[in-house]
Specification:
Elements (H helix, E strand, L loop, with lengths): L5 H22 L3 E8 L4 E3 L6 E3 L3 E7 L6 E13 L26 H31 L6 H15 L4 H26 L9 H19 L3 H10 L7 E7 L4 E10 L4 E13 L2 E12 L6 E5 L5 E5 L6 E15 L2 E11 L6 E11 L4 E16 L4 E3 L2 E3 L9 E16 L3 E3 L1
Parallel strand pairs: 1-4, 3-8
Antiparallel strand pairs: 1-2, 4-6, 5-7, 5-19, 7-8, 9-12, 9-18, 10-11, 12-13, 13-14, 14-15, 15-18, 16-17
Helix pairs in contact: 2-3, 2-4, 2-5, 2-6, 4-5, 4-6
Length: 427
């Protein structure tokens, strides 16, 4: 498009490129997340924002109640997972115009100066009308585009500037932006030749000051952008795609930043967070485990035949051990997952290690509590096979000085309550 400044061109090109980039996402099977911009509170309305997103599913975030003619969105998507360190007990397992002839010393040249002054003023009025009409359109369609209003303002602009198209308006704006500084240069050059006694000096200084004011006013305004805004408003949309992402990990964070190109200001920056479900997860936990693996203790009693019979101490077969588990689970919901766990625990009573394996259920997202039960295995002492039995029970062989025992792998059950309050988010 002719006469568009590089900045405007690059920004618009970025928006167009983004739209093409999003096209494959929009044409594939994916989910749409719609957000409404609340101009009153300058926030995004999160009432309809889903709390969770499905793993390996494509999502596109659309922003509504916005004017695409001047709003440009920027976003950053981060897929993170919750991680924690492996408990020590499990490490073994989870291995310008050139006219210098004009001068005040020649009164006959004053009409020429008046002509360029009048022309500069006329061009300045052109630029003023461009800004006025563009500002009115902006204020009337700031967050809700209206093509009827945009078309009416475009026709008003063409009529006021006496042109037939926006392209002609671009050309006139560029000419005006060049003409006014050039006239100021002419006036500035002749300022050193002012004759204070000349009757036209006061008028010249007044014209010079006016032209200088024109030039200062137009310096900071991008008139080609204003014209482009009027043209873009003819087909502006109230819905704007922000970003697309594929859900993975445990949580997806989206940082949204909205830039108002008309005022060149960032008017909103907000973070969105989505918990991910329908995927597998691996987590650690530590806690307390009840099990029935208790090592027996023996003592001797003398029988009628003089034999030393081996008796087992009567004591509880319950044990509470402290340990850790590694959970491989499927997330049915972000805060609820189930699967299998493998871990180990040490009893503070006998110092022996129990290996634990069984189904597990986890509640919570980043901070978790789990309930696990299943098979417990441990090396325990039992009576050796050399022990002889009779009708009264096992007794000591004659040539053995102490109760013979041997270590063997014993199995039992366990139930445990464990937790993980130290999970950290890792992209």
């Amino acid at each position: 498009m002719p006469f568009i400044l590089l900045k405007t061109f690059l920004i618009r090109a970025t928006v167009i490129a983004t739209s093409f980039w999003l096209l494959p996402w929009q044409t594939s099977a994916q989910q749409i997340i719609e957000l409404d911009y609340d101009a009153g509170s300058n926030t995004l309305d999160l009432a309809s924002l889903p709390e969770m997103v499905k793993h390996n599913t494509n999502y596109t975030i659309l922003l509504r109640n916005i004017n695409s003619a001047h709003v440009v969105p920027f976003s950053e998507v981060t897929n993170s997972r919750f991680v924690s360190d492996i408990p020590d007990i499990l490490r073994s397992i989870y291995v310008g115009i050139p006219d210098d002839a004009v001068g005040l010393n020649l009164p006959q040249e004053l009409p020429a100066k008046s002509r360029i002054y009048i022309k500069a003023t006329q061009y300045y009025r052109y630029l003023e009308n461009i800004q006025r009409i563009s500002d009115e359109l902006y204020m009337q369609t700031r967050f809700q585009p209206n093509t009827d209003v945009a078309q009416a303002k475009k026709q008003e602009l063409l009529q006021v500037l006496d042109v037939r198209s926006i392209q002609e308006a671009y050309a006139k704006a560029v000419l005006a932006n060049t003409y006014i500084p050039s006239v100021l240069e002419v006036y500035s050059t002749q300022l050193a030749n002012i004759n204070a006694d000349n009757q036209n000096t006061a008028e010249f200084i007044e014209e010079y000051a006016t032209i200088k004011g024109y030039n200062e006013n137009i310096k900071s305004i991008d008139y080609t952008f204003l014209l482009n805004f009027i043209e873009e408003s003819q087909q502006a949309s109230a819905t704007l795609p922000i970003t697309s992402f594929r859900a993975s990990g445990d949580v997806v964070d989206v940082t949204v930043r909205l830039l108002n190109m008309y005022t060149n200001t960032t008017f909103l920056e907000q973070n969105l967070s989505f918990a991910v479900y329908d995927n597998f997860s691996f987590d650690f936990s530590t806690g307390f485990f009840y099990n029935n693996l208790v090592e027996p203790e023996y003592y001797l009693t003398e029988g009628e035949s003089g034999r030393l019979y081996i008796q087992e101490e009567e004591k509880s077969n319950a044990d509470i051990s402290i340990g850790a588990l590694g959970h491989f689970t499927y997330k049915f919901l972000p805060e609820w997952r189930g699967g299998i766990a493998l871990g180990a625990a040490i009893s503070p009573f006998d110092g022996k290690l129990r290996y634990l394996l069984g189904p597990t259920i986890i509640w919570g997202q980043q901070k978790q509590v789990s309930l696990t039960c299943g098979l417990a295995l441990a090396q325990m002492d039992k009576l050796s096979d050399v022990v002889v039995n009779d009708q009264s029970g096992p007794y000591m062989p004659a040539n053995v000085g102490s109760i013979p025992t041997t270590r063997s792998l014993q199995s039992g059950f366990f139930i445990g309550l464990s937790y993980n309050l130290t999970n950290r988010k890792q992209p």
